[in-house]
Amino acid sequence: MNEVPARSKRRTVGRARLLAGGVVALVTAVASVAMATLAHADLSGPPGTTLKAAAERSGRYFGAAMGGDRLNDSGFLTIANREFDMMTAVNEMKPDATQPNRGQFDFRAGDAIYNWATQRGMKVRGHTLAWHAQQPRFWGSLNGSALRTAMIDHINGVMGHYRGKLYAWDVVNEAFAENGSRRSSNLQSTGNDWIEAAFRAARAADPGVQLCYNDYNIENRTYGKTQGVYHMIKDFKARGVPIDCVGLQTHFTGGSSLPGNFQQTLSSFAALGVDVALTEVDVTNASSSQYQGLTQACMNVPRCVGITTWGVRDSDSWRGNENPLLFDRNSNPKAAYTSVLNALNAASTTVPGTSTPSGSTSPSTPNDPGQPGVCTATYRSAGSWGGGFQGEVTVSNNGSTTLNGWTVRMTLAGGQTIVNVWNGANTGSTGTVSVRNAAYNGSLGANASTSFGFLANGSTSTAPGDISCTSP
Ligand code: G3I
Fold first, then answer.
1. What is the pLDDT of residue 37?
2. Ligand 1 atom, smallest distance to 65 CA
């Protein structure tokens, strides 16, 4: 299998940044690894007696989806706290919830779930940023470049709020049709590159979080839709479009069931160099054999990092009439629960990078004494399309003392106009422009770095010239 272990992949990312941005960038890369790190694997330990303990033996997680109304449901919370170590918000981090009106973000419902989960040591998957459904109402009156800009603004706004806090984001959800072509939607109508534009913006907005594509009916390797998603990820990897993971929703409800080639599907995605995760599992009548089979398939694929069920009890399910979850309406575990637990405990592969060979140590932070107060800026193209481009500027403190505020100056080529800046505030949009730090990223410790991004219109994507950084 042509697989790139997760830890190696992240080291490769670190090396690329090292070349571009100097030793300081490695600090950012190390921090990113720390945030996305899963449980330490130890297959020699005793079997886990909860879903999360059993999953953690192999460096994996076991998650559930919860709606905000479940925060007042003690039956739900008791099981969730005991059994799960990853949470996904059912609706509360979706575009209509997080940006009800243009420029007015509302994170109260999402934060309530985030806070409940993280206060109990769980990680959180963000769901979702760009989707044809549950869009902000104002997107309905936009199209073309205006809608594209609104999508990018949304990604920046939401990911900026959760920057550094989440394990993964479902950046794009359900963008393919059953036959493997793109699903028609208002986002698709902005141009076929809308998915990669979303992923590039996402990387710039939060460089440390795992960026996933998420979809249903992609569990059978030979199915048209699975092939469509597979070829998109392959193309993204070949062209350097940032993508870290694919989420297979794994709804074996509504007439679907576990395909015989499920494990091959997982390993073929993994062989493209992405993590795979089962993100919204439910199974009609909680068939033990299907739950056992899907869990075992994941355990057999090293880069299958975790499983999330779409709810906890049947009473939490969007398809409750199919009784598809691991706990019944009285909070009792079903036979399927035991089959999942056993399959988790029987895992023979661990997630790459989660086992520490005996005698080895954790990566250490490079120690570069540097010079006091040295601020540098490095430009990187994050993509271009007919009539525009996206840039990312990494701002680094090469010194040994903290910088309090920074300003980057750069000169755009003729005809280029900045239309949007995130993680910074610009003065001027043509010719020589300056970008000052945002309120939350002006303080840069010794050897630390941050980045801002921008979108520009223009007939060329020539990189800005005369780029410099100053700090008061
Ligand atoms: O909150 C309102 C409530 O005020 C109103 O009275 C009621 C009347 O219908 O609607 C409530 O909103 C509903 C919301 O769930 C909260 O319950 C929406 O109508 C309903 O459409 C919405 O459904 C969600 C669905 O996504 C929408 O696409 C489901 O809860 C949620 O489980 C489901 O999740 C999706 C994943 O995001 C993507 N994959 C498929 C999965 C299942 O459909």
1. 75
2. 32
Please give the structure tokens belonging to residue 157: 């706004």
- In angstroms, the CA 396 to CA 407 distance is 11
Q: Which residues pair with 391 in a beta bridge?
A: 381, 454
Paired strand residues for 170 = 127, 212
The answer to whether the CB of 433 falls within 8 A of the CB of 409 is yes
Q: Across the chain, how many H-helices and E-strands are there?
A: 12, 19
SS3 83: helix
pLDDT for 446 equals 78
Distance CA 196, CA 413 (A): 24
In the DSSP assignment, the letter for residue 46 is P
Q: Provide the pLDDT for residue 356.
A: 60
Q: What is the DSSP letter of 453?
A: E
- The residue with tokens 């390797």 is 221
The CA 80 to ligand 1 mean position distance, Å, reads: 20
Ligand 1, from 88, 318, 325: best to mutate by most atoms within 8 Å of Cβ? 318
Is residue 12 reached through a cis peptide bond, with omega within 30 degrees of 0 on the bond before it? Answer: no
Q: Ligand 1 center to residue 134 CA distance, Å?
A: 9
Which residue, by CA, sits nearest to atom 15 of ligand 1?
A: 91
- Return phi, psi of residue 424, to 5°: -175, 170
In DSSP notation, 204-238 reads: HH-TTSEEEEEESS--STTSHHHHHHHHHHHHHHH
Alpha-carbon span 433 to 423, nearest angstrom: 15
Contact assessment for residue 172 and residue 195, using Cβ atoms and an 8 Å cutoff: yes
Q: For residue 451, what are its two tokens? A: 């980045």
Residue nearest to atom 14 of ligand 1 (CA): 91
Ligand 1 neighbours (beta carbon < 6 A): 90-91, 133-134, 216, 249, 280, 318
CA distance 98 to 101: 9
Please give the positions annotated as active site: 174, 280
Q: What letter does residue 288 receive in the DSSP assignment?
A: H
Which ranges of the chain have pLDDT less than 50? 1-35, 358-372
Global pTM value: 0.74
Distance CA 64, CA 84 (A): 7
**What was the pLDDT predicted at 400?**
76
